[in-house]
Amino acid sequence: MGARHTRSAIVARGLDVASMEGLGGLTIGRLAHDLAISKSGLLGHFGSKQSLQLAVLDAAADVFRHEVWDRVADQPAGLPRLRATCEAWVSYLERRVFPGGCFFTAVTSEFDDRHGPVRDGVARLARRWNRSLRADAERAAADLPAGTDPDQLVYELSSLMLGLNYALQMWDDECAPERTRRAVHRLLGPPAAT
Amino acid sequence: MGARHTRSAIVARGLDVASMEGLGGLTIGRLAHDLAISKSGLLGHFGSKQSLQLAVLDAAADVFRHEVWDRVADQPAGLPRLRATCEAWVSYLERRVFPGGCFFTAVTSEFDDRHGPVRDGVARLARRWNRSLRADAERAAADLPAGTDPDQLVYELSSLMLGLNYALQMWDDECAPERTRRAVHRLLGPPAAT
DNA sequence: ATAACGTCCGAACGGTCGGTCTCTATCCGG
DNA sequence: CCGGATAGAGACCGACCGTTCGGACGTTAT
C-alpha cells in the first residue's frame, strides 16, 4: 500500500478524533494505535504534530467546502445563494457530518486565544467564508427590507449556526434545526419554492 | 495563612487559567508553580484534579451569577427582566470578565461530548439558566407580537450570546456588542427607557 | 546482481502529566 | 509544656507526551 493511502487514512481518522477531542487532543500515540501502525511510521508522513494538525485542518476545510459551498455554487449570487447557503449549513450540522459537532467551532474555541500557524489557518478559513457570506448579504440587501445592514445580517446568521451546533452537541435538541430555519426565514424571508 | 485562603487563591488562579486554556488545560503542576506552592500542597486541598475542576466550575458559576443574574433580580419578571438579562449578559461578555472569553462556552465545547461529573455540572448550570430565561420569555410572550414562541425566543437570544463571544474572542470585534444589542432589540423591542 | 529508495518499525530520548508517599513545621487545646 | 492535628514540602511513581534514530523490509532502476 502506498504512502498516499496511509497518509489519507491517518488524516481521515484524525478528522474524526479531532472533531470530538479537538486538535490538541489528537495525539500521535493514540492515532497510531487506532490505525495499528507505529508512532514513528505515522509521524514520518508529517514531520511534526503541528503539520499533522494543519493537514487535518485542511481536510476538514475540504469537507466543509464540499458539504456547504459546493452545493450552492450554482445558485444566483445574492439572496438566493444566501438562503441556500444557510440551508446547506443547517443541513451540514443536522446530519452531523463530524461526529463531534462542527469541526471549526470546536477548533476555534480551542485556539482563539493562542498564536501560531494553526490559529492562523483557522482564522484564514473563517475569514474567507465570512467574506463569501458577506458578499451575498450585500447583494441580498436590495431584496430585503430597507435599512438592512449586511454585516448585521451575517453576524446574526453566523450566531444562529453557532447556536445550532451548541443545541445539537450539548442537548441533542431535535427541534433546533427547525428553529434555526425559522429564524433564518425571519431574517431572509421564506425559502424560495423550488 | 489559613487553608481557606490558600484554597480560594488556588481556585481564583485556576479560574483565570481555565478560562483561557480550558478545564483540561488546567494542570496541577502549572497551577502549583504559578502560586509558588508544591503540587502535593495544592492537591491536598482537593484530593483529585476532577475535584479541582469542579471547584473551579463552581467558582465560575458564582462569578457568572454575580455578573448577570444578581444584577437583574430586582427587575419585574417577564419582558423587563428578559431585556435586563440580555443587557447584563452582553455587558458581561463586553467587559471580558474572564480573560479567555465566556468560561462556560469554552468548557461546554470541551466537555459536550464526554461523560462524567464535570460535564454533568456544566449541563446542570446551563439547564438552570436556560430555565430562568425561558420562564421570563414565557411571561414576556404576552407583551410581544402574537405568535411569539418562548422557546424560539430563548434559542435565538442564546445564539446571539454565543455569536458575541465568538466575535469578541476570535476577532476582537468592537462592533459586536452593539450588533448584539441591535439584534436583541429587534427580538424584544427597544430597551425600556429608565 | 546490486544499488537506491520509499515505507515503516521498535527502541529510546527528555519532559510533563496526575497522583502517592514520607517527612517536617506549625498551630492549638489541655 | 506537651501531644495530636494539619498544611505543606519534596522526592518519587507509572503512564503518556512528541520526537529522534538506526535499521529492516520490499520495490524499482540500473
List keywords for this structure.
homodimer, 194 residues, mainly alpha, Tetracycline Repressor, domain 2, 9 helices, 74% helix, 0% strand, DNA-binding, DNA-binding (chains A, B), Homeodomain-like_sf (chains A, B)
How do the helices and strands line up, and which of them pair or pack?
The structure is a homodimer of 194-residue chains.
Chain A: H1 3-25, H2 28-35, H3 39-43, H4 49-72, H5 79-94, H6 103-111, H7 117-140, H8 150-171, H9 176-188
Helix pairs in contact in A: 1-2, 1-4, 1-6, 4-5, 4-7, 5-7, 5-8, 5-9, 6-7, 7-8, 8-9
Chain B binds a DNA duplex (30 and 30 nucleotides) through helix 2 and helix 3.
Give a description of the structure.
- 2 copies of one chain form a homodimer.
- With 194 residues, chain A is an all-alpha fold.
- The first copy, chain A, has a domain at 59-188: Tetracycline Repressor, domain 2 (Orthogonal Bundle), CATH 1.10.357.10.
- Chain A contains 9 helices and no strands.
- In chain A, helix 1 crosses helix 2.
- Chain A binds chain B through residues 20, 22, 99-101, 105-106, 108-110, 112-113, 123, 126, 151-152, 155-156, 158-160, 162-164, 166-167, 169-170, 175-176, 179, 182-183, and chain B through 20, 22, 100-101, 105-106, 108-110, 112-113, 123, 126, 151-152, 155-156, 158-160, 162-164, 166-167, 169-170, 175-176, 179, 182-183.
- Chain B binds a DNA duplex (30 and 30 nucleotides) through residues 1-3, 6, 27-30, 37-45, 48-49.
- Chains A, B: Residues 4-64 form the HTH tetR-type domain.
- Chains A, B: It comes from Haloactinopolyspora alba.
- Chains A, B: InterPro entries: Homeodomain-like_sf, HTH_TetR, Tet_transcr_reg_TetR-rel_C_sf, TetR_C.
